[in-house]
Amino acid sequence: MNEEKFIDWGFPVDQIFLAAGPCSAESEEQVLETARALADGGVGFLRAGIWKPRTRPGSFEGVGRRGLAWMDRARRETGLKIGTEVAEPAHVEACLEYGLDILWIGARTSTNPFSVQAIADALKGTDVPVLVKNPMTADIGLWIGAIERLAHAGLTKLGAIHRGFSSPLEMRYRNAPNWKVPIELKRHLPELPLICDPSHICGKADLIHIVAQEAMDLLFDGLMVEVHPDPPSALSDAAQQLTPVQFISMVRHLELSHEQSESPVFLNRMSGLRDSVDELDSQLLSLLGQRMDIVQEMGRLKTKQGISTLQPHRWQEIIDDRIAKGTRLNLSEDFVLQLMQSIHEEAIRKQEVERVEGAGLD
Ligand code: PEP
Ligand code: MN
User: Fold this and answer.
1) Can you give the pTM of this predicted structure?
2) Whose C-alpha lies nearest to ligand 1, atom 8?
3) Right CATH number for 4-253 from 3.20.20.210, 3.30.390.50, 3.30.710.10, 3.20.20.70?
4) Ligand 1: residues within 6 Å at CB?
5) pLDDT, tens digit, for every residue of 27-43?
6) Using one digit for the tens of pLDDT, what is the confidence trace for 134-170?
7) Which CATH class is domain 264-358?
């Protein structure tokens, strides 16, 4: 994994970066108890929310700067590094005063470029490590933009945290993992450390190990997990926090993946399978090209007849038919629906181009 990046940051990292701690600092005793248990379990980094951006006002909104003093004490006593979320310049100032080892920008804040810029301005002249959580919606440009604002302010120790995306459709998880977005971020910024926060993705303690393992399988560089000495009594996010013992046991059971293998048998077999996939992808693209040519021809006919581009009945038939066929081929309904929606969107775009060109409007 990307050990060197973190050694630069001065963190003790054993293969992966691990941060754990309560959603919110609630009392000095709670912070110290968590820190001691984590330090005994070999975790190097304590997280705790001090200012809590809650969805509804009136929920517990954090203990404020006195929590920083508790974290500082935990650091002195246990040797753990400490970090918290900042959402505005005043938070940054308080954290710099207490010499926090790392800061992160939460999902609600990274959604707003004005706030990110204000934080970046407040951090100018320092080089505190800052992790940027993905915005609430799956907007990769906004996520990258937040990272760029910090980089332009001269910060060099940057990383990203994937915490899932709010979605009205998602049932299993609190926030949809939508893995293609962090994978795309890694493609754009391959050197940027990428950390997963399975707690906010899952929303439930018993799912966390599944998402944490998935993140390892996708070559994430580390995890940030919510850990509380007594989760049911937590003042925020009670359902998703693990006890220190559960967390340490989960970490011990994680299987770490590597991108490359030296095994000749594996390499040989993979190379054969990759050739097959390459060939099938070529066929898929060629078929899609042919399908689009036909769609364009249909567009010309529709224009001549003066009928609409969108044909709702036909579209419903296509969806029903393709999902039924896909299911017989072991393809999930969600996947087939998304695939057909993408194809249909492009078909509509092409037909609209035909319409505009046909009308001589371009
Ligand atoms: C948190 O880490 O406690 C938090 C509020 O996270 P997010 O910004 O991902 O919701
Ligand atoms: Mn939380």
Assistant:
1) 0.86
2) 106
3) 3.20.20.70
4) 23, 49, 85, 106-108, 133, 163, 197, 200
5) 999 999 999 999 998 89
6) 999 999 999 999 999 999 999 999 999 999 999 887 6
7) mainly alpha
